[in-house]
């Protein structure tokens, strides 16, 4: 590894772990992700005998454990925004750029450290939540196994999705350079876009299929719910995620190359 | 050693730095003097590759800043109190800076010692006074033991003790044979600190001379400064007329 890249990575690693926001965001994500998933799974199990057959058929052993994911994804996204926009807001971008004057290198190192960290935490959260949920479901013979068709893909994709949201937040943060603007843009993209898609469904399902939240739902589930026309196919969902990450990182990279 | 060659920065129709050329030599404190808005900070930001010049070039120790592999070993810069993330401790702030340029972590401890911050090393920067922040900025600049140091308005908002501390530090660094460039709009402070002066006004170089020679024939450095800046206001508007292809 070239020494300049090694130095930039080491610096970003220390920066990431030496502010409280990182610890707060990741703890919140772990607690809410695991906690809400567990609560939801327990409530399904408790009411299983009274559930209508249609609901039973639609039950997704992986999906129910992931009901805490919307909160966790927020924490990941906000972390992504803060990692870069926080530098501009506090003025620490000046020492960052004087220590590593190649802006592309700074951007690359920041993105790499964040991607690695959020991927590890995202997968830990996804698999942890899944296994806890299965422990609850096992008592009722509803549990799935990682070897079952689609399960491993769904669980690992739920973890990947969290990292994807963090990277989208990162790109938006680099583009906005202000934490509040970056977080607002992230909320709009993750939550408001869903409503916009719904509103347009009278004309076309395409906007809905292209929303982040629907793509996230589809990749984190086992049954690709073909019955719901607003949901994209599995392939389209992965493509959509890749497209959002590319656009956000590209936009952020473009802005980073410009003078602070 | 700092070399600035025909450096120009335009923001739209406004020219912040106008065809500036100078050399800053080692072994003495060079003051960079001019009124607010004269282009001092823009010039320093271009030296450090924080701002991209419209034309011209700036080199530190013979190379453009962006091509320095370990810039903290070449140049230390103290810019206008900004700099450290409030949520990070002083020690961690210096740690990541050291890591970025492959410097050993003990350097962080050493510069904290030199700037008198050892006792607050573990405290978050958000709780620091302006004087402590300024010291932390200086600690960061000294981290790589660089032969060239740049201070942008280092005494703004400091108490007399802090002002004197920074002044003696800059003089000591120059005496060690380093290149020291310090920008200020305070003539009296420059008279006490600098051996050599670069005076700029409206983005142009007005004088590049030793303090003694600049002051000769005037009652004080201040009188010399005002004589210089008065003449350039005229000079500047002549240039504007010329740029528009008209005569005044």
Automatic annotation (TrEMBL), chain A:
Keywords: Membrane, Transmembrane, Transmembrane helix. The chain crosses the membrane at residues 23-45, 65-85, 105-131, 151-173, 180-200, 236-254. It comes from the Bacteria. This is ABC transporter permease. It comes from Dactylosporangium siamense.
From TrEMBL, chain B:
SMART domains: AAA (SM00382). GO terms for molecular function: ATP binding; ATP hydrolysis activity. InterPro entries: AAA+_ATPase, ABC_transporter-like_ATP-bd, ABC_transporter-like_CS, P-loop_NTPase. Residues 2-227 form the ABC transporter domain. Keywords: ATP-binding, Nucleotide-binding, Transport. Pfam families: ABC_tran. The keyword Nucleotide-binding applies. Coiled coil: none annotated. Belongs to the ABC transporter superfamily. This is ABC transporter domain-containing protein. It comes from Dactylosporangium siamense.
């Amino acid at each position: 590894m070239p020494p300049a890249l090694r130095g930039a990575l080491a610096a970003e690693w220390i920066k990431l772990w030496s502010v409280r926001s990182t610890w707060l965001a990741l703890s919140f994500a772990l607690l809410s992700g695991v906690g809400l998933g567990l609560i939801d799974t327990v409530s399904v199990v408790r009411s299983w005998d009274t559930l209508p057959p249609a609901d039973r058929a639609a039950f997704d052993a992986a999906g129910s454990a992931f009901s805490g994911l919307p909160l966790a994804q927020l924490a990941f996204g906000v972390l992504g925004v803060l990692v870069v926009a926080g530098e501009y807001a506090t003025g620490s971008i000046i020492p960052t750029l004087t220590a590593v004057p190649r802006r592309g290198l700074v951007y690359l190192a920041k993105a790499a450290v964040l991607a690695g960290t959020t991927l590890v935490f995202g997968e830990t959260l996804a698999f942890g939540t899944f296994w806890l949920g299965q422990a609850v479901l096992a008592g009722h013979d509803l549990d799935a196994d990682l070897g079952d068709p689609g399960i491993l893909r769904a669980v690992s994709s739920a973890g990947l999705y969290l990292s994807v949201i963090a990277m989208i937040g990162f790109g938006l943060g680099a583009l906005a350079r202000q934490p509040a603007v970056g977080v607002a843009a992230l909320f709009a993209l993750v939550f408001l876009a869903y409503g916009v898609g719904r509103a347009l469904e009278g004309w076309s399902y395409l906007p809905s299929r292209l929303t982040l939240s629907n793509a996230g739902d589809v990749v984190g589930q086992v049954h690709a719910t073909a019955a719901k026309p607003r949901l994209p196919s599995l392939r389209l969902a992965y493509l959509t995620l890749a497209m959002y990450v590319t656009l956000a990182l590209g936009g952020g990279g473009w802005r980073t190359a410009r003078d602070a | 050693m700092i070399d600035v060659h025909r450096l120009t920065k335009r923001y739209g129709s406004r020219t912040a730095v106008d065809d500036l050329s100078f050399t800053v030599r080692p072994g003495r404190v060079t003051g960079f003097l001019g009124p607010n808005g004269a282009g001092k900070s823009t010039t320093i930001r271009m030296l450090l590759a924080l701002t991209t010049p419209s034309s011209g070039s700036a080199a530190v120790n013979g190379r453009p800043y962006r091509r320095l592999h370990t810039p903290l070993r070449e140049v230390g810069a103290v810019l206008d109190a900004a700099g450290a993330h409030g949520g990070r401790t002083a020690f961690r702030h210096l740690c990541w800076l050291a890591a970025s340029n492959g410097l050993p972590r003990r350097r962080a401890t050493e510069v904290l010692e030199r700037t008198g911050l050892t006792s607050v090393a573990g405290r978050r920067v958000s709780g620091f006074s302006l004087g402590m922040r300024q010291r932390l900025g200086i600690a960061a600049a000294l981290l790589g033991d660089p032969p060239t140091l740049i201070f942008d308005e280092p005494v703004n908002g400091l108490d007399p003790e802090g002002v004197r501390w920074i002044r003696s530090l800059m003089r000591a660094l120059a005496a060690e044979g380093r290149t020291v460039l310090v920008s200020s709009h305070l003539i009296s402070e420059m008279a006490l600190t600098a051996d050599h002066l670069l005076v700029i006004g409206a983005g142009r170089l007005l004088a590049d001379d030793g303090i003694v020679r600049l002051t000769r024939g005037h009652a004080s450095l201040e009188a010399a400064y005002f004589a210089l800046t008065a003449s350039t206001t005229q000079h500047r508007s002549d240039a504007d007329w010329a740029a528009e292809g008209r005569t005044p």
